[in-house]
Amino acid sequence: MVNVDSSNQISGKESSRIYVLFYSFFLIPFMIAVFGALFFLLFRFITFETNSAEDLLNQVKVGSASKRWQSAFELAKILNNPDLVPLSNSFKDQMISAYQRSIHDDPLVRSYLAMAMGATRDTTYGSTLLNGLNDDNLESQIAAIQSVGLIGYSPAVPELKDITIRSESHSERLAATIALGMIGDQTSIPHLTSLLDDEEPNIRWDAAVALAKMGNNSGVSIIASLLDREYLNQFKEVDEIEKKQVLMVAIQVSSLLVDQRFKSKLITLAETDVDLSIRDAAIKTLEKKYSASITS
Predict the structure, then answer these.
(1) How many domains does the chain divide into?
(2) Which domain, by its residues, includes 69?
(3) What's the mean pLDDT in 154-164?
């Protein structure tokens, strides 16, 4: 005969053990997970920052020193998306005001704000950026030069021409040459033609590209050279990534003008180049401009 008290005692022990297992292996870990999730959500809510252009611009104006340039950098990235560019006059006025005040700030802030304005492709910022061409800081000067090119601001042409002549900075002269090509003002053609004989290879190259974009064939021989890997291999300072970029730009530009010198170079690239993306670009240009079918 089983002792009832002993049986109840055993049953109680079993029940107690089950509860211990329940708390140890289910309830406590579950509660930890729940509280952890709540803490994480609360932390995200407290530290949440929107990435709208308006909010980033506000952070540029009132943020700490490190926060201002980081926000200006993010703003420049966001405004590269046309769908995210605010169209209100209020935003434009605030952007211009922030850029004007940044003359006394970290040059990074001013540089990124210039790039942000250029990214909008809005000529509203033209006269403001034009003032940036005279900055003392070289980086912010170059950012302003690139941005007047991006927005196609024709009134900047005389100043850009002057920079290609008087500046002692190769980077600044190159940026001005590229900007002239992006603006595409026909009055720049004689000046760009003179740059085809510049002592700096990059200046010659980008002057030829700029002229081609304007439908001018004065730089055809230079562009044909840029379609030749052997020619590019002469420049030891140009790495493989840069060579690919140069070739892709040259292929793209060659589609703007028809010249038999381009055709032979494109055929060579299409048939023998080591980079398949270069081959593909050359084949497409040949098919489009010269009705040539290439089997690589």
Answers:
(1) 2
(2) 53-151
(3) 97
